[in-house]
Design a protein that fits this description.
The complex is a heterodimer of chains A (316) and B (507).
Chain A: H1 3-19, E1 36-40, H2 47-63, E2 67-71, H3 78-85, E3 93-98, H4 99-103, H5 105-108, E4 119-127, E5 131-135, H6 143-153, E6 155-159, H7 162-175, E7 179-183, H8 187-195, E8 201-204, H9 208-213, E9 217-222, E10 249-255, H10 260-274, H11 277-285, H12 294-314
Parallel strand pairs in A: 1-2, 1-3, 6-7, 6-8
Antiparallel strand pairs in A: 3-10, 4-10, 5-8, 5-9
Chain B: H1 4-14, H2 17-35, H3 41-51, H4 57-74, H5 76-82, H6 91-102, H7 106-140, H8 144-157, H9 166-180, E1 183-184, E2 191-192, H10 206-225, H11 228-231, H12 249-253, H13 256-271, H14 277-291, H15 303-319, H16 321-327, H17 333-344, H18 353-356, H19 358-389, H20 394-412, H21 416-434, H22 439-462, H23 474-500
Antiparallel strand pairs in B: 1-2
Helix pairs in contact in B: 1-19, 2-4, 2-19, 3-4, 3-17, 4-15, 4-17, 4-19, 5-6, 5-7, 6-7, 6-15, 7-13, 7-15, 7-16, 7-19, 8-22, 8-23, 9-22, 10-20, 10-21, 10-22, 13-14, 13-15, 14-15, 20-21
Classes of the chains: A alpha/beta (316), B mainly alpha (507).
């Protein structure tokens, strides 16, 4: 997805809305036959849920479809994925999860009944900007200073998920220092441990942005592929010579074997909604931006992450 | 702290007719949903959030907070009237509330519960408004090591709730711990007792389980007891004497220290993210019972029991906003739902909130205070309605409640899985009642264990496995000393009290 094309799509979409509110994505005749269900792999009221509901509402208005959002929380999107896998591939059910749902979970727990290859991907709606952050009271402000500190004392890093733990281990191996991942019950739990000074740093996806803006925290390293707008001076690990990132996209998926015409129609409808102005506003509020990697881009990111986790976890 | 002008402007924003309308509506919705067994306040909030999309920000937040506040008052009603607390936090209220209702004083029990609930809520709001920032900093000092010690203390004082047989109580609590270990372990993420079912990866769904154990089991129990003669009668006798429903200021003031202590416990537990109102209610009830001169009178309809539970679990509601508003950390699931509402309305909770949105926050505080009075007023009116509803015969009340339990479990756990869990625990709870094994002790074991396990793992990692490092944590040491003291001083007394009251049924 090039920028020009997104702008063009957005412009087209807004023109289309102004002229014919119900005409947009090119869809096979008779599709959809009834309502479309969006199965969200997380609970109502969470971040992924807010994104799914915004996209669903926009699709309803733009395409004239009925899109019902239903929550299937559990196992980091695993419950939703297992249910989605059993659905008819007719485009009537769309799953909403995260990259880790399909790229990490199947290799982390062997009994997971699916792999990423059991689904087709319509695209993404957002990229979570993970960062390694610490409170400003600590004696280090950069990654180099943090590693120096860890060399002398070892360091504890509060994490909120397996992918973050793995990243901490990769860093420890790369720099040859003792880094202890302290698993929290989630981002809020890790944030609390970090703000209270009980750990030396924490990996965070969203909550750290406000803390950085308030001057309470500093980002030691960006765990994304590219630098992030809220901390432009914080280098990525890739720049520092360690090829490690945490991929955290909100992904939209359908069961494998969906009719190509229906698939193309849904992918286009998703893209139009992700590029919409209303959705951009939601992203603004979340200190993030709309990112649609498109069907091929999404699959590529997932395949790369899955291959990494599969080999990394097999070597444990 | 913003200047006076900001505070006044915020308060003025709150004082509009439409805000007042939505506050009263929110409180009423919260009370009704809370009062229906099987419906939980989380459901009400999740459903209410999309409704607020079109409202302006202050109205939306005032409405949602009112729903939450109403829920804490409503939750006690079925606990008192039909002994079926739909949520774990009102379970401790049932221990004395229901016996009082059975004595023919349901109105009195509901009044006690309403007044102490609003009392706890009101004072925790005052704490939030005046000292949120310093209290949040104190709460941050509670790291993994300190919280582990706090959980140890909670386990020791909670023995006061295990019923009359220590052994049976410990069996129940141990079973609760065991069930809490189902799902991915908090350290390594290894699946335990999941038998390959993805549904069990996040553990048993607490809401469905507690609906089963507390509400459905009681309904089964009542249905099993029902004969043709009793089916036509109401579940609790209504006293005809006007006196029995009345509550004087003297009655209320008699328990002022209990209520005050409960409020302090609730506020402190609420200020620490992740602990929740069930822990606060149980802890406060337990401490009150064990420190009383006559612990044997608890469980027989003692107003101190209602005060201890209700003031504490309601105090959590205001205090839970402390970490949210000052640090951006949601204290519990209800607060997490409020976060998404904030974000939808363009506000990012975090350390900058007071600075950037001072007027809105003070508007919200004003709305919270108004909501407390609305809670009181709506509660007074609602009480008569519930008393009337409960005058329906058993054969109507219990099947209707059961239907709502099915709905609630289905919605909160996302499908039939929740209903299955509810039924399994409904049957288990029925047998636990028959054998006088306290389901409450089971739930406490279940609620406390994950927090203890997760914090213990974190503590071991942070201290690099060196137990002497605990000496660097004075708060943890103080809490551990208190735990030992509570076993030494409160243990034997509890047993003496229990011997006198052997004929009481277990909770």
């Amino acid at each position: 997805m090039t920028i020009t094309r997104s702008i063009a799509a957005a412009a087209l979409a807004s023109v289309a809305i102004a002229a014919h509110p119900a005409v947009a994505a090119e869809c096979p005749a008779g599709f959809p036959d009834g309502q479309i269900t969006m199965l969200v792999g997380y609970g109502a009221g969470g971040g992924t849920d807010a994104i799914a509901r915004a996209i669903a509402a926009d699709m309803e208005a733009r395409q004239g479809w009925t899109v019902v959002v239903d929550n299937r929380p559990g196992a980091g999107g695993g419950v939703m994925s297992a249910e989605l896998m059993g659905k008819e591939p007719d485009g009537s059910v769309i799953g909403v999860g995260a990259t880790g749902t399909v790229a990490l979970n199947p290799y982390e727990t062997k009994s997971t009944p699916f792999t990423y290859e059991d689904f087709d991907y319509l695209g993404t709606a957002m990229n979570i900007n993970y960062g390694l952050v610490s409170i400003t009271d600590k004696p280090y402000k950069t990654l180099a200073e943090f590693i120096e500190f860890a060399k002398a004392n070892g360091a504890t890093i509060a994490t909120g998920g397996k992918s973050q733990e793995i990243l901490v281990r990769q860093m420890a191996d790369h720099y040859g220092v003792e880094l202890i991942a302290v698993p929290g019950k989630g981002a809020a739990d890790s944030m609390q441990a970090a703000l209270g000074g009980h750990v030396d740093a924490t990996t965070q996806g969203t909550q750290h942005v406000q803390q950085i803006k308030a001057g309470a925290m500093v980002q030691l390293a960006s765990l994304t592929g590219e630098r992030v707008p809220y901390a432009p001076d914080s280098p990525t690990l890739v720049e520092e010579g360690l090829d490690a990132t945490i991929e955290g996209q909100t992904i939209f998926m359908v069961p494998k074997g969906t009719d190509p015409a229906v698939f193309a129609c849904l992918a286009q409808a998703l893209d139009e909604s992700v590029q919409s102005e209303g959705y951009a506003e939601l992203m603004d509020r979340l200190d993030n931006k709309a990112v649609n990697l498109g069907p091929d881009g999404t699959r590529a990111v997932i395949a790369k992450a899955a291959a990494f986790y599969q080999s990394y976890l097999a070597g444990e | 702290m913003p200047d006076l002008a900001t505070i006044l402007a915020g308060a003025a924003d709150a004082a509009t007719l439409s805000n007042l309308f939505f506050i009263i509506l929110g409180v009423a919705i919260g009370q009704v949903v809370g009062a229906i067994p099987g419906m939980t306040i989380l459901m009400a909030l999740a459903i209410a959030i999309p409704i607020t999309y079109t409202m302006d920000t202050l109205t939306a937040i005032a409405f949602l907070i009112s729903v939450n506040k109403g829920g804490t008052v409503g939750g006690a009603i079925p606990a008192i009237l039909i002994n079926t607390p739909g949520t774990p936090e009102s379970a401790a209220t049932a221990l004395d509330g229901h016996p009082m209702a059975k004595k023919g004083q349901p109105m009195k029990a509901m009044r006690y519960s309403l007044y102490y609930s609003v009392f706890g809520d009101f004072w925790s709001d005052i704490v939030l408004i005046t000292v949120a920032a310093p209290l949040a900093i104190v709460a941050l000092k509670m790291g993994p090591v300190e919280v582990t010690a706090l959980m140890v203390l909670a386990f020791t004082v909670i023995t006061g709730l295990v019923g009359n047989s220590m052994v049976k109580g410990l069996i129940a609590a141990a079973l609760g711990c065991l069930c809490a270990s189902i799902g991915l372990d908090p350290g390594q993420g290894t699946p335990r007792f999941t038998f390959g079912s993805l549904n069990l990866y996040d553990g048993l769904p607490l809401t469905a389980m507690s609906i089963g154990l507390l509400a459905v089991a009681e309904i089964f129990h009542q249905i099993a007891k029902t004969t043709k003669a009793t089916a036509a009668t109401a579940p609790i006798p209504m006293s005809v004497r006007e006196d029995d429903g009345r509550l004087t200021l003297k009655d209320l003031l008699a328990n002022r220290y209990v209520a005050l202590r409960a409020t302090v416990i609730g506020t402190l537990i609420g200020a620490i993210p992740g602990l929740g109102s069930a822990t606060a209610g149980f802890l406060s009830y337990s401490i009150t019972k064990q420190s009383a001169k006559d612990p044997e009178s608890f469980g027989t309809g003692d107003p101190r029991g209602i005060a201890a539970s209700e003031a504490a679990n309601s105090a959590v509601v205001g205090a839970n906003l402390i970490p949210l508003l000052t640090l951006g950390i949601p204290g519990n699931i209800a607060a997490a739902l409020l976060v998404s509402a904030f974000i939808i309305h363009g506000i990012q909770p975090g350390p900058l909130l007071f600075k950037e949105q001072g007027q809105l926050i003070y508007g919200m505080f004003a709305a919270m205070l108004v909501a407390n009075f609305a809670n009181l007023a709506v509660g007074q009116i609602g009480m008569r309605f519930w008393a009337f509803a409960i005058s329906a015969p058993n054969s109507v009340i219990y099947p209707a409640s059961l239907l709502l339990c099915f709905t609630g479990s289905y919605v909160t756990a996302g499908g039939l899985f929740g209903v299955m869990i509810m039924l399994i625990f409904g049957v288990a709870g029925y047998f636990m009642r028959l054998f006088a094994i306290s389901p409450i002790a089971f739930i406490i074991g279940y609620v406390l264990t994950p927090e203890l396990e997760s914090k213990l793992i974190q503590s071991v990692l942070i201290t690099r496995g060196d137990p002497w490092k605990v000496l660097d944590h004075p708060i943890a040491i103080a809490l551990l000393v208190l735990s030992v003291a509570s076993i030494v001083y409160l243990g034997p007394r509890r047993r003496k009290g229990a011997k006198k009251a052997v004929d009481q049924p277990a909770a």
